[in-house]
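[stage:ingest] chain + small molecule (xanthosine-5'-monophosphate)
[stage:ingest] validated
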Amino acid sequence: MQHQLVLVLDFGGQYNQLIARRVRECGVYCEVKPYTMPVSEIAKRAPIGIIFTGGPNSVYEENAPKIDPALFTLGIPVLGICYGCHIIAQTLGGRVVPASDETAREYGKTRTYFSLENKLFSGLPNQGVTWMSHGDYMEQVPEGFALIANSDACPNVAVADEARRIYGVQFHPEVDHTENGLAMLRNFLYSVCGAVGDWTMGDFVKEAVAAVREKVGDGKVLLALSGGVDSSVCAALLAEAIGPQLTCVFVDHGLMRLNEGDEVEAAFSKWPIHFVRVNAEARFLAKLGGVDEPEQKRKIIGEEFIRVFEEEAKKIGTVDFLAQGTIYPDVIESGIGDAAVIKSHHNVGGLPDFVDFKEIVEPLRLLFKDEVRQLGRELGLADYLVERQPFPGPGLAIRVIGALTKEKLDTLRLADAIFRDEIAAAGLNKSVNQYFTVLTNARSVGVMGDGRTYDYTLALRAVTTTDFMTADWARIPYEVLDRISVRIVNEVRGINRIVYDITSKPPATIEWE
Ligand code: XMP
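[stage:predict] done
[stage:export] tokens:
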């Protein structure tokens, strides 16, 4: 089925994927494309609306991203956000200049006053807080544009040419800090663009199942299942669509959390698929023996994973398709720039060299993470798989600092299970976005009963974050921390001291290695 489409043109801002997720939350399908997408291609896709994102530049800078003015002749509604608003103003004959203090260099929460006689703000309160992050000022707005919002410091916070259906807002409606921001996006989509809300997960299951069946026919499909959300939902979708034609290879590298391997296996027992669980713990531990350098650990695990998978694949013989749980954020090409690589990420995903397959199938390619979870729920996957917090491909290997031993891994597994238990019991498992324990390599002296101990220090790590690019340490109540500490030192041998990691990201990262 063809869905109505909104294009989000990416100028390199930090909230770009968030904009797209919000549009989808409103029940409208959208795709993120670089701002350089040619107007002819945009026209071919026939979107019902276009959103320009924010970006790190100022429109008057020499090499700042530009937009082809022909885009405005297509008659497609446009909403510009932050940089997107300024580029509209500049392209259509207005003037944008650096803001002096009086003319509103605005950062953070800003009280904003709205005119309600326009489709963007219609039906909303006439004032509220918006989230601003810009240092520029629309000194002159283009002809035909009306001012539709102001703040105490800035007379033109939002502009509109309602005849041409072009809107611009200097603030960020997509972030939670903007009151009624989602309602503004909804107004743009439904009142301005004429959206009908034809993007729902229930429909997506039917469509995705049909699409997989059509693509795969009676072919054989092979999937490397890691037990993470993406590969699990991918497996469930394929299982639903083609059942016995699917083989899932689940490489149990022995670096998973307590009982995790069994849980994954159990979750897929309800489908008539070929489920191959490879117990490769000894193999991985042998390769990792004595290795303490984090990047080397990651590299070894990534490579070994592929080798084990290839060996299993060889046993299966030629398959028609290799399935991958690639999701939309992996697919989006950003408008500008590349982020620095701080850690190499190893997941199931890198293409194996020696697996015999004809084609790749990626049924989650168009979905954001929250949509993948929703799809998993629709497919009846267990909550513990769908709701999982992120877990790194190299697993507990990068949460045991220094060289690994089976004993250390087992110690960490028990401590980690207690931590997760207590976080859930305290009702914090939804508000804290990721939480785990790290077995540090530090040993210290303690006293237990009448005896001296010389055991390891365990660190608790818990963060709140929306994008995992930045994170804050979670303010877990002292009583909860106390319970966790008492339980772990009492129940887990080899640990006699617990510390809580109170660094944000940056400057730390979420994981320790
Ligand atoms: P850092 O430690 O870089 O982690 O702040 C950011 C997020 O990424 C997860 N992480 C990984 N995820 N494969 C993954 O799929 C990996 O190799 C990997 N390393 C870190 C980490 O748990 C956090 O959620």
